[in-house]
Amino acid sequence: MRAVTIISRHLLILPIFRVLAALLTVMCVCGAVAASAEDKLIKEGEYLTLDNCIEIALRQQPNLMYYLYQIHAIEAQVGQAESGFYPSIDLQTGHTRNQIVNKYRSTPYSTIINKDDYYGSAQLTQTIFDFGKTRSYVGMKNFYLLASKKDYEAQTNSTAYNVKLSYYGVIKAMRSRDVDAETVNKYERQFDQAKDFFQAGTKALYDVTQAEVNLSSAKISLMNSENALSLAWDNLTTTMGLIYSAGFKIDEDMTPKQLGIKFEDALERAYADRPDLMSAMATKDAAQTNIEYMKKDYFPVISGTASYNFDNGRFPLDNGWIAGVVMKWNVFSGFNTKFKVAEARASKDAAESKIQALKLSIYSGVKQSYLNLKLAGDVIPASELQVKLSKENLDIVTLKYEAGLASPVDYTDAVVQYKSAKLTYINALYNYKIAEAAILWAMGSR
Q1: Considering the entire predicted model, what is its pTM?
Q2: Half-sphere exposure of 411 (CA within 13 A, CB side)
Q3: Tens digits of per-residue pLDDT, 263-290?
Q4: At what angle do helices 205-239 and 133-200 cross, to 10 degrees?
Q5: Domains in the chain: boundaries
Q6: Whole-angstrom Cα distance, residue 282 to residue 358?
């Protein structure tokens, strides 16, 4: 009877364990789904503008974090430098035990003496005057802090510029894919028309073969365009700092916008706003301050010190205080200070050379971007007219071909001309947007 009761209890417990295991599984799955939903900043099918993509990149791009942590590190260095303005307090305590063994030559005996010593002290030290050495050191670190902040700003501008390149690259790939898809449709119509002509006996088998070759080539081109579009999407998500394929939508508008800026104005803005140039100038100021800091080693340092001491071999301990002023002056150190100053001056000269090289690079970058922008603006109307004319020609040739008055070669030439014109127009729009982004980046803005 007892065995039956035990078995029945086990039978009741088993379903409970199964229910708990099922609940645990559901909780884990739900947690994983929730975690994956939290990890993805972009919802499936979400519409993003260029500004949205740049904003996500500035939050997600790990390269930016390096420069942000550099700022935090140098902020800590500034705090360390400013600690020289404050006093330092040292506490010390300890216990020592000495054992002395005295041996006597006349007797085989020896004596052992144990001595205990307890001591403690509290010492305060404050720099009174160091000829501005601490102040120079703090100033140098502050210049380096400014340089690191400008480096971070320059990196954010570069990240935004790279997002623009990738963003417009996706639009270009999408439009190119659409052109190839349209070309496939046109060649499919040609192939069907050629088969009808051949069955009716009005055209030779050559026309069918030629149309099929055109259709096959167009399909291959479409497959390459689809692959290029996938690569462009991957490049955009990578630039945005995303590690997953986000199925979002973007604004496909590439309408050119006239900036209306002269080259001289663009160059002036670049020299005034480029964060990398401002970083180089802050680094030069830091190098100049470093020269002053190194020269301070030629002068003494005057500091005040005060301490309270406890010392004895037994309690209560003897105690007393000491206070005074100390001057420390390194008179000769093997010309160490002289070479430190020489090194600092060389660093300042190097920083000035870097500024001049950067200004030259800025001038070249603004000039090239301005010329590319102007060229792209001039090409767009011409390429747009080319699309219009090639479309009219294609429409005429298509009517003639369907009426049996044009050859397959004529139709193929018209399609190729129209496709080339549309791709040229797409490239012109893309080049204009890239040149626009490039000159904004060259001027130090997003």
Answers
A1: 0.80
A2: 26
A3: 999 999 999 999 999 999 999 999 999 9
A4: 160
A5: 42-89+131-299+332-442
A6: 14
